[in-house]
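Morning F.,

Quick status update on the modeling queue. The single chain you submitted on Monday has been processed. Sequence for confirmation:
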Amino acid sequence: MGTDYIFSKLLAGLSTLFSDKVAGITIHDISFSPEYLFSPKHKKNLFKWLDRLNKIEWPADDIDFGKLKIDFELWYYELGGDFIEFSYQKNYLIKPSEAAEQLGVSTVTLNKYIKQGMECLNNGSQNKIPKYAVELLRDPVYGVLMQMIGQKKKRMQQPPSERLGEIYKEIAEYQIKYGTETYQEAFSEYDGDEMDDPTDYNHWKDLVEESTEILKMAGGIARK
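Structure tokens below.
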């Protein structure tokens, strides 16, 4: 039982077993990385997914669906995939104002979460958020993983110059908010593990690292 079989079973399972939530899944074919396929990590992941398939309890709630979706997307990218997109049933999508109310935050704060990678779909005239994303954002581990995937998709779909413009704008907002040039200065007395809410610290740091990586790939000089 190989990678293709397990991946296909999971893809079919996500589409059919969660048909109350998922309308469809679009992916690009995977160019499997030989280096990853023959690695101990990949072998471990195959056994993990086999075990997980056997232990799934139905019907699954939003948080269980969200965790499975995030883990599947992460695995897809590890296998060498470059595009995966979920579409959802209309009744599984809510307005940003509803999501903000459920999370107990302002719409300004919710927009910040969306910029950081919370899943949000542009359905023409109005943005919509899948219900699982609200539940997942409350999870300290999977909330971060969802945002990481969101940022990865944004990087892959945007021209580097456009993404850099967005990054510099977000960094400028933090610089104004904290009155410093760098995140190291803003959080000089702390590290991420010592903060009650390390969101700004982590995101600012990630933005700087992302801009550095983009400029390196383009042969430019990283902005400090």
